[in-house]
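We close this part of the discussion by returning to an individual protein. Part of our work consisted of pairing the sequence of a single chain with a tokenised description of its backbone. The amino acid sequence and the backbone structure tokens for this protein are reproduced below.
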Amino acid sequence: NKNMIRVLIVGRKSFIGSNLYFFLKKKLFVKKISYDELIKKNIKFFKKYSYIINCSVHPSYMRYRYQTKFDNDIKIAKKIKNINIKYIFISSRKIYRSKFDIKENSLLNPKCNYSKNKLITEKKLTSIIKNRVLIFRVSNIIGLPIINNNKKIHWTFVDDFFYFANKGVIFNNGKNFKDFISIKKFSEIIYLSLKKNIYGIYNLSIGKKIYLNHLIKWLNFYNKNKCKVIKIEKIHKNVDNFTLNNTKLSKIINFKYSINDLEKYCRKISKIYFKK
């Protein structure tokens, strides 16, 4: 079928890539490939696909100042710049200054090397493949990791919570909040965006304040062991409070996601983890 959307996901072991693959394969033609495999492919290989979604990242890209040799996205973009294929770049909400109700045109203020590098990549991609790039600035993602060979391959907020819960500790985060979205809803939004054939820059989030104490309560719902609640010392408090305004994207693809939906998803994760 020439009109079928064909998706190539880069990042065979990635948390986002693996979850996205399992979701999309029920609806579209999708192939998952490692970055090392992909970079060796010729032009003919890429012509078979409508979209590339890169979920791979070089460790040095996350830790150090920007260098092109560590930028997987730019290397891929240069290979496909003369082919009619669209590119989805997963950027980060960390490129913004933390505040409530961040819009796409809000102040950019990346502070760590990772967020600075993401912003540099955004600009380079827009220059190389112009209106064939779709950039998502994503809030914190909640989900159980994909397990490969009995090893966790990505450390998320959920892993952080379960690590301390298993030690019998829960932290009191006071009134600190962030914006979270489940990996399932994230995958659904990616699917709807593919169907709408959009491009440009969009926030991808629930768009609401999720208090960390509430999130921890949901994740701890099926834990039968008593945990000691510990007040976080001021010096260690995570006060990076933010929400992303998702109005621009939701107007186009018409998705809805409530705090109640997120609570149900977190309780499901809790049940899977504590009753395994």
